[in-house]
Structure formats: C-alpha cells, structure tokens
UniProtKB/TrEMBL annotation:
Ranges of compositional bias, category Gly residues: 429-439
Known function: DEAD-box RNA helicase involved in ribosome assembly. Has RNA-dependent ATPase activity and unwinds double-stranded RNA.
Catalytic activity: ATP + H2O = ADP + phosphate + H(+)
Annotated Helicase ATP-binding domain residues: 32-213
Protein name (database record): ATP-dependent RNA helicase RhlE
Family, similarity comment: Belongs to the DEAD box helicase family. RhlE subfamily.
GO function terms (MF aspect): ATP binding; ATP hydrolysis activity; nucleic acid binding; RNA helicase activity
Nucleotide-binding recorded as keyword: yes
Recorded GO CC terms: cytosol
Pfam families per the UniProt record, alphabetical: DEAD, Helicase_C
Length: 457
C-alpha cells in the first residue's frame, strides 16, 4: 500500500515522501479514501496513530485539485478560509499546522494557526492576508469571531481533532458557537480517542451519515513500548530519576509530573544535579513553552518535564524515554503518556517511579491496559516495605476522575510531612518530596484558573 494508490495527488505524495513516510498507517489507509469521497467521517484514533496526516492529506488533496483531480493553479488574491481545524491545545494546534504546512509544500495552499497566550494582532494580519486552511483553538477563534477578524462563511471542511479532549476541557459551548457561523453544506470530520455519550451526542448533531473507522486503541499497540515499574520511596524519586538519567546516559527524556508545582520543583532539583531540564505547563507563557519544546525536539534540552494537559498532543518522532515521575490519577492518561514513545513502530521505553501512595493508581492502570507491569527494584533505592500510603496531591482543579473534572480546588490534598505512619527519615522532616509535596504558602489555584491555563485562550 502506498500513498499514491490511495488516490492522493503527486504534489501531496511528493511532500509526504520527502517527510520520510512511504507506507500509510492503518488510520491513513482507512481515512484517506473516506475523506476523498467527500462524506463526513467519525474516526476513533489517538495521537501516535498518524491521524494528523490521515485527515490533512485528503483535505489538502480536495482543496488543491478540481473534480478531475487536476491541480488548481489559479491563485486568487481573496482567499477565503476553506478548511477549519479545531484542536484542544496550543501545542496540538501548532503541530497540526506544522504538518499542514509540510504536506502542502507543493500545492498553492497556505495555512496559519491561531491560539491564545500570544498577541492577537499578528494573527489578525495573517487572516487579513488570506488563508486557505486555518488551525485554531476554540477560545482564540471565538475572540476573533467577536472582533470580526475572521470570516468562516466559506468553510468547506471542518475538522475536530481530539474532540474528546476538547469536551473534557469544557469547549463544547465554544464549539457550538463556531458551528453556528459555518455554512450548513460542508464536510465534517470528527477525530476522537474515546467515545463518551457527550461525543456521541456531538457526532449525532454534527455528522451526516458518516463513514466510521476505528483503529486499534493505543492500549493494544503498546507492545513496542517496554514498560517498567521502579518501586521507590516517595522522597527518593528525585535522586532515582537523576541516577537513571545519568547511569543510562539518557539524552532525551520526557518526564511527567502530576502537578505544575511538582514540575517546577523537579526542574530545579535536576538542574542542581547538572541535568538540563525545563517544564511546560499551563502557567508557563506560550513563548516559554514553545522554546522548551523546540529545544527538546532538536536535542539541546535533555529533559522536558510536563503535566498531562500541557503534554497532550506533543509529537516527537521516536522519543526514546518517557518517565512517569508521578503516576496519573486518570488511568487513560498513562496510555496517552507512554504513547509519546515508540511512535509509528519505533521502539521506546516507559518507566514509572511508583511509591506506596500510588499503588491504587497502578492497580487501575494495570486493569485498563490488561497487563501486570514488571517491577524492578533498583539497588540503593529499595523501598521501605513498611511505609504507609499518604494522600497524594492531585493536579489542581481536578478530582480523581474524569467525570469529576470540575471538582473544587479543595480536592487538592496537602501531603503531611513526616507523619502518617511513614518510615522516620534520618534526613529530617522533609518528607512529602517526590513531587507530592505542596509547600505551605503555595495556595491551591482555583479550578477555573487552572483550566484556562492549558486552554487555547
Ligand atoms: P499523529 O498520530 O498524527 O500524532 O502522528 C504520530 C506520528 O507518526 C508523527 O510523528 C507522524 O509524523 C508519524 N507518522 C505519520 N504518518 C506516518 C507514516 N505513514 N509512517 C510513519 N510515521 C508516520
């Protein structure tokens, strides 16, 4: 199977081939002909499956060729927006647009991306200039709609990417406002990793007799990813991570923490150990996030520490190492996290540093992925078998479950130091480290401010 045999134009096949891809992934094999046929599509696919090219390539083909498949050469100076791609986060939007740009290289089409956290004026200028394909986060798109700086009246194709995450992040009303200004006759593509009742309701209202495709959930494709659990005491996580990075000579490591505070603290600790690290999370400015991501991608930054929302959609080819410094309290996030490695068949390694507080979370994860992960105790970091579990600090603004994602900040539990039955430590009462601690005086943020941090506004 090749891209040209799927019916894509030479210009697009050439750009994909230059990108290094010759064999379509399963989602591409199914989505490309379906989108080329012109109907609506409901696709179940996660990041890592090649879904972006799965919708980008046929959309580019449809916009750049006429009904006979010949290239459209006229280049009108008044270019209306013909395709709109909505994505939940700034990072994902930027990456999708990067793909659109790469794959449209040999067509006359142009694209731009708009998201919050950066100045609106350059975006207004871009939009005025004329754009064929617009990639946007919903919040910023609404800002432009409010200011009358974007015209969506000529959109022919709408793509909702990671629709489930957009709903999780509370974007449903924004999406509906966008839908209301689009021309009724258009092609709609909805991509989602999961199919909740909410997604089904959205799909029912949006899609007209859609083709339906679903590729294997990542849970079932993780065989290429070597997974390991390192049991460890909560206050030994940081020295263990430094040890692992140094002794294994890891040069490009993506580390997940549960909280923004934990991410910042770990960056400082690694820095003190001589390991270059930066954090990305919702409280970081867009420029800081972009810089960290690009340095990490080009290999100049050794460690990128991320929270789940910020990392959503990060696309780095063949990332060799993912570390769960804290286990996620939402089991599905484990699958998303480790999916950053072992992409498109490449081998990867995902290790989780698990302390006694996280045993229940580990159980939930193993239940979801239907496997028991191998445990490997590292010499010198043997956990105290008598240690008792303490409450863990969940990421601010969320409860322990997806359906409770608007739990008040009161869901944040401060880890007690030294108490709770944990083994007395000779190093003094500085327990509660390992990313689980929350310094007194560091007041929990409100749920609303946390959510806006990771959103596209
Ligand atoms: P996505 O699911 O769109 O985030 O893509 C996951 C990763 O797979 C990205 O790094 C893509 O560049 C890569 N990829 C996309 N299509 C292919 C392909 N046909 N062969 C190999 N890798 C691909």
């Amino acid at each position: 199977m090749s891209f040209s045999s799927l019916g894509l134009s030479d210009a697009i096949v050439r750009a994909v081939t230059e990108h290094g891809y010759t064999v379509p992934t399963p989602i591409q094999t199914q989505a490309i002909p379906a989108v080329l046929a012109g109907g609506d599509l409901l696709a179940g696919a996660q990041t890592g499956t090649g879904k972006t090219a799965g919708f980008t390539l046929p959309v580019l083909h449809r916009l750049s060729t006429d009904a006979n498949g010949a290239a459209i050469t006229s280049n009108s100076s008044t270019r209306p927006i013909r395709a709109l791609i909505l994505a939940p986060t700034r990072e994902l939007a930027a990456q999708v647009e990067e793909s659109v740009r790469a794959y449209s290289k040999y067509t006359k089409l142009n694209s731009t991306v708009i998201f919050g956290g950066v100045g609106i004026n350059p975006q207004i200028k871009q939009l005025k200039h004329g754009v064929d394909i617009l990639v946007a986060t919903p919040g910023r798109l609404l800002d432009h709609m409010g200011q009358g700086t974007v015209d969506l009246s000529k959109v022919e194709i709408l793509i909702l990417d990671e629709a489930d995450r957009m709903l999780d992040m509370g974007f449903i009303r924004d999406i509906k406002k966008v839908l209301a200004v689009l021309p009724p006759k258009r092609q709609n593509l909805l991509f989602s990793a999961t199919f909740s009742e909410e997604i089904k309701a959205l799909a029912d209202g949006l899609l007209n007799k859609p083709a339906m495709i679903e590729v294997a959930r990542r849970n079932s494709t993780v065989e290429v990813i070597k997974q390991k659990i390192h049991p460890v005491d909560r206050d030994k996580k940081h020295p263990m991570l430094s040890y692992l990075i140094k002794s294994n000579n890891w040069t490009q490591v993506l580390v997940f923490t549960r909280t923004k505070h934990g991410a910042n603290k770990l960056v400082e600790q690694l820095g003190a150990d001589g390991i270059g690290a930066l954090a990305i999370h919702g409280n970081k400015s867009q420029s800081a996030r972009t810089r960290a991501l690009s340095e990490f991608k080009d290999g100049t930054l050794q460690v990128l520490v991320a929270t789940d929302i910020a990392a959503r959609g990060i696309d780095i080819d063949q990332l060799p190492h993912v570390v769960n410094y804290d286990l996620p309290n939402i089991p599905e996030d484990y699958v998303h996290r480790i999916g950053r490695t072992g992409r498109a068949g490449a081998k990867g390694e995902a290790v989780s540093l698990v302390c006694v507080d996280e045993h229940e979370m580990l159980k939930d994860i193993e239940k979801l992925i239907k496997q028991t992960l191998p445990r490997e105790v590292i010499e010198g970091f043997e956990p105290d078998l008598n240690a008792r579990a303490q409450p863990v600090q969940l990421r601010s603004g969320t409860g322990g479950h997806r359906n409770n994602s608007r739990a008040p900040a009161g869901a944040v539990v401060r880890v007690k130091t030294g108490g709770g039955g944990a083994k007395p430590r000779s190093a003094g009462p500085s327990g509660g480290g390992g990313g689980g601690g929350n310094r007194s005086g560091n007041a929990p943020r409100s749920a609303a401010s946390h959510r806006s941090g990771g959103r596209g506004r």
